[in-house]
Amino acid sequence: MTTDAPTDVSDIYGTMVFNEHVMAERLPSVTYKALMRTIQNGEPLDIEVANVVAHSMKEWAMEQGATHYTHWFQPLTGITSEKHDGFIDPTADGRALMRFSGKELIQGEPDASSFPNGGLRATFEARGYTAWDPTSYAFIKDQVLCIPTAFCSYTGEALDEKTPLLRSLAAIEEQANRVLSLFGEPKQRIVSTVGCEQEYFLISEETYTQRLDLMLTNRTLFGYAPCKGQELDDHYFGAIRPTVSAFMKELDDELWKLGIPAKTKHNEVAPAQHELAPIFENANRAIDHNLLTMEKMRLLASRYGLVCLQHEKPFAGINGSGKHDNWSLSANGKNLLEPGENPMENLRFLVFLACVIEAVDEYQDLLRMSVASAGNDHRLGADEAPPAIVSIFLGDELSAIVDALVNDHESEYISAHKVAMDLGVSVLPNFLKDNTDRNRTSPFAFTGNKFEFRMPGSSQNLSETNMILNTAVAKSLKDFADSMDGRSGEEFEQAALEHVKELLKDHQRIIFDGNGYSKEWEEEAARRGLSNYRTTAEAMPSLLQPKSVALLEEFEILSENEVRSRYEVKLEKYNKLINIEARTMKRMVRQQYLPAISSFADEVAQNIFHIEGVDNQADMGPHRELLGKLTAGMRRIHDLLTQLDEAHHRVRAIADQQECADRNATEVIPLMDALRAEVDALEIVVARKYWPVPSYNDLLFYA
Ligand code: ADP
Ligand code: MG
User: Fold this and answer.
1) Which region among 24-38, 119-133, 434-448 has the lowest average model confidence (pLDDT)?
2) What is the model's pLDDT at position 116?
3) Residues 357 and 404 in one domain
4) pLDDT tens for residues 61-87?
5) pLDDT at residue 448 greater than cutoff 90
6) Is residue 508 included in any domain, yes or no?
7) Cα angle at 147 between 260 and 126, to 5 degrees?
8) Does one domain contain both 341 and 459?
9) Mean pLDDT (whole number) for 340-349
10) CA torsion, ordered 507, 509, 513, 518, to nearest 10 deg
């Protein structure tokens, strides 16, 4: 538990990180400079330099109490993996030295045969290797020096989430630099920046351990709505209860030590739901940090008698948890999605804006695919979550500018602030930043100087989403740069503005500022030809489309083989999760719910028997009605259970993952929903003492 003494944040911040400050302090200056060239420009690091870095890392780590090191990586399971190796190296005379070599720093060889690979390694070798990613700092966790790494097969195929992300960062950097050079800017370091807002639930460990569904699937497979939900809006931003507050405080301390810029914490809309938002960083680090944050949340919760649920939809009918992906591009620290101070900067802004709009429209299916998961299927389109249709919200000011450009009326553009503005090329105005985004229903919203992608689910690793976003935008930037080649000065400005107008005209259908939750939008989106994939099973095939493969191959992000393997892994994971859920459901119905309902029915029957025995005039109508309800409900539960059992076994046996997923979505899940509804209906009829598991009231409103 934390002490009551306030933490001096600057004293602890980054103390567990081998960051630039530590490197500068500890490495010989030539080594430091060589390492910086690797970190900043991707130059290869030679083994001599690596040896020096490794030694210094080990010395530093041991001073912080570390005894082991690990290559920390992100296989396609969605979580992070680590295998700890001691620094220990026994000597011939019976003593031990502590060693860590450059080779051990740069490369590891985990036995990778148990990680998902979608058939990739079957054709090659069972071994994989991990390679140091020097762009994300090494850190210490639990007395282990963790080295962020990429994870590949021996023939170089990516087996992880990080590798394609890093490749996409290189692609967008190159193309954005080409665009900036047209604006007369020198080559610079361009990174995509990401700030991930993490939503989660905290419930008491005591109720959690009484629910098999929560323990095995992270969500409730049964449960009638609580008497009180979120309708009073009294949880959002409400005072944080002491246990939760203590948890959040310790969490912040732990994250700050790891150099994770945790900034904002608050109660969310749903009861027992909370959020943590860090300050944005470059995408690679932001995602490493998000994964660490999630892990810390899960581990720390148990110290407070709590359990942290990171599932997208732990409770039906209650808001689910997302992970908003705030995204922008930064060139040497300058935000390229920031409307500028002068006309040229505004033109540059419009070019980047139009390219993002084009990218999101062209590759909406891939973006949707990237957020597809069994858990998120329950969230997208439900309650407060964005719909499964990708669209962009721009806000009043920008929408007006886009309209003016599309209709060639830019010279008549009047800003919301009633200042006439001339959008002629050489005199593009200083338009105002619109920070007033209150459209929470948009899946992809411009929020003043960045986009906020709200579809990703809370349990997701954001690498794939950002990989797609970066690559799709790189493609639009490339097309722009290609079409501008050789132009400069006023000719370039004219052509650039024309290009922007064309893009906006061609892709205006993706822009939607209205209510994304409404039925009318679904119909309107269909008329506009926007995709609406309701389930993972429906969303996945877009990954294999020739257009998708072509994009990923063009920028050398993923080969067709790698694409196929990812597709297989994701579908397999979906099918396995549905299999676990169906099995858990059946187990709970057979061993918990049916016996409980039967016992209660027995009590009611005995009541009737006893009361009538004493008073044969007594009106036993209500008792009989209740008994009838219980036995009829049991009949329906029994029938649905039989049907689910049959469908579950039949679908599970289907070898083709896509067909299996399709059938899970259309046959198994509807039966699970129907079975749940019958059990839930009896939950509010059966006496509480008979109900075998804690209810939503117990789970969501704990002391
Ligand atoms: P809201 O709840 O209104 O969405 P938050 O403050 O909770 O706002 O989250 C906004 C997130 O966006 C933060 O993580 C913030 O650091 C991040 N962010 C701000 N500017 C950028 C940027 N240029 N690039 C990426 N993320 C950004
Ligand atoms: Mg947000």
Assistant:
1) 119-133
2) 80
3) yes
4) 999 999 999 999 999 988 899 889 999
5) no
6) yes
7) 130
8) yes
9) 79
10) -150
What confidence category does residue 422 fall into, taking pLDDT thresholds of 50, 70 and 90?
very low
Q: Report the chain's terminal Cα–Cα distance, integer Å.
A: 19
Q: Could you give the C-alpha distances from 645 to 327, 672, 692, in angstroms and in order? A: 44, 10, 22
Q: Looking up tokens 């690559």, which residue turns up?
A: 471
As a whole number, mean pLDDT of residues 355-360 equals 98
User: The CATH number of the domain where 41 resides is what?
Assistant: 3.10.20.70
Question: Is 293 near ligand 1, meaning CB less than 6 Å away?
Answer: no
Sign of CA pseudo-dihedral 353, 359, 365, 367: negative
Structure tokens at 168: 């996409």
- The pLDDT, as a whole number, for residue 106 is 92
DSSP 639-695: HHHHHHHHHHHHHHT--SHHHHHHHIIIIIHHHHHHHHHHHHHHHTTS-GGG--S--
Ligand nearest, relative to CA of residue 196: 1
Q: HEC profile for 465-508?
A: HHHHHHHHHHHHHHHHHHHHCCCCHHHHHHHHHHHHHHHHHHHH
Rounded distance, CA 444 to CA 465, Å? Answer: 12
pLDDT bracket for residue 8 (50, 70, 90): confident
Containing structural domain, residue 591: 574-700
Whether 288 is in the pocket of ligand 1, judged by its Cβ within 6 Å, is no
Q: Name the residue of 190, 192, 197 whose CB sits within 8 Å of the most ligand 1 atoms, as the mutation to test its pocket.
A: 197
State which ligand 1 atom lies nearest to the alpha carbon of 194.
Answer: 25
For 123-151, what is each residue's pLDDT tens digit? Answer: 445 678 899 999 999 999 999 999 999 99
Residue 536 lies in a domain: yes
- The percentage of the chain sitting over the pLDDT mark of 70, rounded to a whole number, equals 93
For residue 327, give the ligand 1 atom closest to its CA: 25
> Do 518 and 387 reside in the same domain of the chain?
yes
134 and 182 fall within a common domain: no
Which whole number is the average pLDDT over 425-450?
69
CATH number at residue 625: 1.20.120.1560
Residues 535 and 594 in one domain: no
Ligand 1 within 6 A of 322 CB?
no
The ligand placed nearest to the CA atom of residue 331 is: 1
Q: Give the pLDDT of residue 346.
A: 85
Report the alpha-carbon distance of residue 112 to residue 693 in Å, rounded: 39
Instruction: Please work out whether the CB of residue 197 comes within 6 Å of at least one atom of ligand 1.
Output: yes
Query: Comparing 412-416, 458-462, 583-587, which segment has the lowest mean pLDDT?
Result: 412-416
Q: HSE on the CB side for 350, CA within 13 Å? A: 34
* Atom number in ligand 1 closest to CA 275: 7
Q: How many domains does the chain have?
A: 3
CATH number of the domain to which 262 belongs: 3.30.590.10
Mean pLDDT of 26-51: 91
Local structure of 289: helix, strand or coil: helix
Residue-wise pLDDT tens digits, 214-228: 999 999 999 999 998
564 in a structural domain: no
pLDDT in tens, 624-669: 999 999 999 999 999 999 999 999 999 999 999 999 999 999 999 9
Do residue 156 and residue 180 come from a single domain? no
Q: Is the CB of 335 under 6 A from ligand 1?
A: yes
pTM: 0.94
Which of 160, 183, 199 is the endpoint of a domain?
Answer: 160
Same domain, 198 and 104: no
Cβ burial, residue 244 (10 Å; 0-12/13-18/19+): middle
How many other C-beta atoms lie within 10 A of the C-beta of residue 654? Answer: 15
**Is residue 567 assigned to a domain?**
no
Give yes or no for residue 461 CB within 6 A of ligand 1: no
Q: Which residue's CA is minimally distant from atom 1 of ligand 1? A: 197
Domain boundary among 143, 160, 177: 160
